[in-house]
Amino acid sequence: MFGSFNQRVAGRKWQIIAPEGHLYYFSKRTLGQSLAKAGFEVCHLETNSALINPLTHSPLLVKLFNNRYATRLKLPQITQALRLGDEMWMIARKVRPVASSGEARAQGREGQDVEVREPVQ
After folding, report:
1. Which domain holds residue 42?
2. Looking at the domain assignment, is residue 43 inside a domain?
3. Per-residue DSSP letters for 39-95?
4. How many structural domains comprise the chain?
């Protein structure tokens, strides 16, 4: 996940990009924005407790963070509590209909929905 502890600490050595297995990559913010744009509200967000993924191209970082000392310091629990793990699960519910093609919805000054139609060509 972009913005994870692993990605922030490893920087350019964080190379967990696998285009053959993942079409899109999100951060908590970008996935939340995409869901909101589609008419959903995030109900629950959770990440795993991974500190540094063993696939990170830095053996030093893997050794520094994936050991019994990190476990004693409760770093995995802190990572999970702060939602900074590498993998993310989001539960969302539909709160409003999405405008059909050819239509868009905008908010007026008082917050009410205003229908906006694109010109037909």
Report:
1. 5-96
2. yes
3. TEEEEEEEE---SS-TTSS-HHHHHHHSSHHHHHTTHHHHHHHTT-SSSEEEEEEE-
4. 1
Per the rule left: phi > 0, alpha: psi between -120 and 50, beta: everything else, 3 is left
In a domain? residue 52: yes
Q: Contact 84/38 with Cβ under 8 angstroms?
A: no
Q: How far apart (Å, rounded) are the C-alpha atoms in residues 34 and 13? A: 27
- R_g (Cα) of the chain, nearest Å: 20
Confirm whether 78 is domain-assigned.
yes
Mean pLDDT by runs of 10 across the 121 residues of the chain is: 79 74 84 93 88 76 82 85 83 80 48 45 43
Domain assignment present for residue 105? The answer is no
Rounded to whole angstroms, the Cα distance separating 24 from 95 reads 24
